[in-house]
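Format is sequence with structure; example below:
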Amino acid sequence: MSKTGKRTRELDFEVAIEAWLVGEGGYVKADRGRFDARLGLDAQTLLAFLKESQAQTWRKLASSYGASVEQEVVKRIASECDARGLLDVLRNGVRDRGQTLRLAYFRPPTSLNPDTERRYGQNRLTVMRQVAYDLDSQRTIDMLLSLNGLPIATVELKNAFTGQRSIHAIKQYIKKRVPTRK
């Protein structure tokens, strides 16, 4: 029980954190069903970001790939994340058929260039709750924070009012979260 006498649940904690991230943190609530555990990303958000922020590059790729452009670009980005790591891909982008796709725009050091400010503003931060990460068991992680459809952080919440502590979350990550993809 909390100090107010109300029973608290982990779910209530999730809702409160999500509400803060959406209301104050600049995040958008995203449907957990959009997360592709096989590829490890949210293709819908990723594609929307690419099409909006890099329209000319997208048109060139669409001309090259044709009808399969979305599937091929998402597959290429997932492959590069696996091979080079997410941080490198975010920092340096992905080359595909002679085009460079930027996957994030970082905050410019000054506001002197309106174009870099505009690009930074095109980033899409999303929060998803109870996201299935395991194809076999459909186990879920409490929260997933993403940048342009690419997972940046996962959160496993614990409720101190019910005796849970951060050590419980650490043990859960160590013993129940298999870090490899099949």
